[in-house]
Design brief:
About 55% of the residues lie in helices and about 10% in strands. It is mainly alpha-helical. It has a two-stranded antiparallel sheet. A hairpin with a 2-residue loop joins β1 and β2 (about 55-60). α1 crosses α2 (about 65-85). The radius of gyration is 19 Å and the shape is elongated. The termini are far apart.
């Protein structure tokens, strides 16, 4: 391997290492958020039914939907405070309340043709 190729390989390893660190940290924060939602949401009969990458799907009785929407943000702030207690990082969640899971596709992709899956 020539010098140029060796430098390119070293740079790629560096990018991979930095990316792994960032993604690993994000995954740990997400787990802390989900665990906090699970613990505090029990009193409102909220159940996490899906964790996917950086999304939580929470099933909750409709009468508790507004309270759980607030709880999701509160739990994110609690997990974020445990992560960075000096307010150097701002944690934001995009929270939507839907009656059924099938409505989420239109909520997330409002311009998508509903006949296309």
């Amino acid at each position: 391997m020539g010098t140029r190729e060796a430098r390119g390989a070293a740079a790629a390893r560096g990018r991979y290492g930095r990316n792994a660190l960032v993604q690993g940290a994000a995954a740990e924060l997400f787990k802390a958020w989900a665990a906090t939602v699970r613990a505090h949401g029990a009193r409102l009969d909220a159940r996490i039914v899906l964790c996917l990458h950086d999304e939580l799907l929470v099933h909750v009785p409709i009468e508790h939907s507004d309270a759980v929407a607030r709880l999701l943000d509160d739990c994110l702030q609690e997990a974020g405070y445990r992560w960075a207690s000096d307010d150097s990082v701002r944690f934001v969640a995009d929270i939507g309340v839907l009656e059924r899971w099938s409505d989420a596709k239109q909520e997330v992709h409002p311009n998508r043709d509903p006949d296309i899956s």
